[in-house]
Write a structure and sequence with these properties.
- The complex is a heterodimer.
- Chain A is mainly alpha-helical.
- Helix content of chain A is 80%, strand content 0%.
- In chain A, helix 1 packs across helix 7 and helix 9 packs antiparallel against helix 13.
- The radius of gyration of chain A is 19 Å and the shape is globular.
- The two termini of chain A are 28 Å apart.
- Chain B has nine helices and ten strands.
- A six-stranded mixed β-sheet of chain B has the order 6-7-8-3-9-10, with helices on both faces.
- The radius of gyration of chain B is 18 Å and the shape is globular.
- Classes of the chains: A mainly alpha, B alpha/beta.
- At the A-B interface, helix 1 and helix 6 of A face helix 2 and helix 3 of B.
């Protein structure tokens, strides 16, 4: 645990040592602003909630989260620092977890920077703050899911561009799994169980259900086990590469 | 302290390390010599647990690196080939990170960093970004992180590469100072370095040990007493005949 926090601290510090953190947070705020107020019609709807804000998160994360996760392992491999990191006295799993948690904490900080919009909606009306809090938690869980996928993919390559593109496509599959475009492909011939299974892998299904204000244990377990599985795969990939 | 038994490593069809065996005791400074691509770095990477061997074993104080990597890694200080460092950090932050990871007690870290920095002459650049440092400074930061926890075993992959003659001299002195109670394995291309700091030399070529003895014995092999001649003779003689 101590080793994990040591890595977490170093990584988190590294985000803010370079312009990466500031550029990311500014772009994130800019995009959420544009999407919420212009495309989401935040004011025109005249409803005191943050639905138009959260509606775009799966899509926004699709681009922005792989941009964070792509460097996690690919950069270490490229610069050779992976040799420094993995010869320190801790397990591969602790290194994976530390780096992941730092990236997740960083997205959490970016998300925290959007809270003025939460205040705004409270000034303008009388929103259900429980629902908003649930949606924030759901959004953070979803970001964790994207990050775990991206971290795992980043471990397979030393090329950040490849890591970015492959992570983006993989995450997109996890979004699309719940959309009619994909589900229609199965309806008509596949049994309902198959359709339900495919749709149950969708980030959309789980995020939307949390964003409605109901933190269902199943949704939390979905994101939790998804993160766990991808981080485990991440560790196994790194260990397997030692033997290559 | 270190025992290596029939160590092997293959990358696909290429046998990078092919049955290397030797053991090193505290007080020994082992110079690892060999042409480029002979398997020096690969062997070091297996000793430090960065690469998994294809065969054979590495025992650090009796414990197999593969079985208990953390116990083995705790005893080792390692300067990887090319001295890779987190370039967006300052040497001070990097050393703090390594010291913490290497379990140097929190109360001693700051003092320890100052001491080591003075030893390797990086005090003046401790708060500069590593990215902006010259090759010589980077190498010495790499060396500093390897010795920050005063390890029993020091594995240095080309510790003097990129240093000027004065800096080389200083690093050699540092190695000599530390050698009394440690196991030190260093790889180098520079033959005079082996003569200057090593108590023992191992030459490997094509993944096999072709010489294991003291540097002076090595010199005696040549009528002219020149190390480079012996080196050339040994490493080219062992090359497999090209059909």
């Amino acid at each position: 645990m101590k080793s994990t926090t040591t890595i977490l601290k170093r990584e988190l510090r590294a985000y803010f040592a370079t312009p990466v953190a500031y550029v990311f947070i500014v772009i994130f705020l800019l995009l959420t602003g544009i999407l919420t107020f212009y495309m989401g019609g935040f004011f025109e709807r005249e409803q005191a909630d943050l639905a138009p804000f959260f509606f775009f998160h799966p899509w926004l994360y699709l681009i922005l989260v792989p941009a964070i996760s792509m460097r996690l392992w690919a950069e270490e491999r490229k610069t050779g620092t992976i040799e420094l990191l993995l010869t320190l006295p801790f397990s591969t799993g602790q290194a994976v977890l530390g780096k992941f948690l730092a990236a997740w904490a960083f997205t959490g900080i970016a998300l925290l920077a959007t809270t003025p919009i939460w205040l705004t909606v409270n000034i303008l009306g009388d929103p259900d703050n429980g629902v908003i809090l649930a949606a924030y938690i759901g959004s953070l869980l979803m970001a964790g899911g994207y990050l775990a996928i991206g971290s795992c993919i980043s471990a397979t390559t030393n090329n950040q561009v490849i890591a970015f593109v492959v992570s983006l496509v993989t995450c997109m599959l996890f979004i699309l799994a719940g959309l009619p475009a994909v589900l229609d492909f199965f309806t008509g011939w596949a049994p309902q169980a198959v359709i339900d299974t495919v749709s149950s892998f969708s980030f959309m299904t789980h995020f939307n259900s949390i964003a409605k204000g109901v933190i269902d244990l199943r949704d939390v377990i979905f994101f939790g086990s998804l993160i766990g599985c991808f981080l485990l795969a991440n560790t196994l990939i790194l260990d397997a590469k030692k033997g290559e | 302290m270190i025992e290596i038994k029939n160590l092997q490593k293959s990358f696909g069809d290429f046998r990078a390390v092919d049955g290397v065996s030797f053991s090193v005791k505290p007080g020994e400074v082992l110079g690892f010599l060999g042409p480029n691509g002979a398997g020096k770095s690969t062997t070091m990477r297996m000793i430090t647990g960065f690469l998994a061997p294809s065969g054979g074993e590495v025992l650090i104080a009796g414990a197999d690196v593969e079985v208990d990597p953390i116990a083995a890694k705790k005893r080792i200080g390692y300067l990887p080939e090319g001295a890779p460092l987190y370039s967006d950090m300052s040497p001070r932050n990097l050393l703090e990170f390594i010291a913490e990871a290497r379990e140097v007690p929190a109360a001693e870290r700051a003092k320890r960093i100052e001491e080591i920095a003075a030893k390797v002459h990086i005090t003046g650049v401790l708060d500069q970004q590593i990215e902006t440092l010259s090759k010589g400074y980077k190498r010495r930061v790499g060396l500093a992180q390897a010795i920050i926890h005063n390890p029993e075993i020091l594995i240095l992959d080309e510790p003097t590469d990129g240093l000027d003659p004065n800096q080389k001299h200083e690093v050699r002195q540092l190695i000599e100072e530390m050698s009394k109670d440690k196991v030190i394995i260093l790889s180098t291309h520079i033959l005079e370095e082996v003569d200057a700091v090593c108590t023992r030399a191992i030459i490997i070529t094509h993944g096999k040990v072709v010489y294991d003895g003291t540097p002076s014995e090595l010199k005696e092999r040549s009528p002219s007493g020149r190390l480079d001649e012996v080196f050339r003779e040994i490493t080219t003689a062992a090359a497999p005949a090209i059909a």
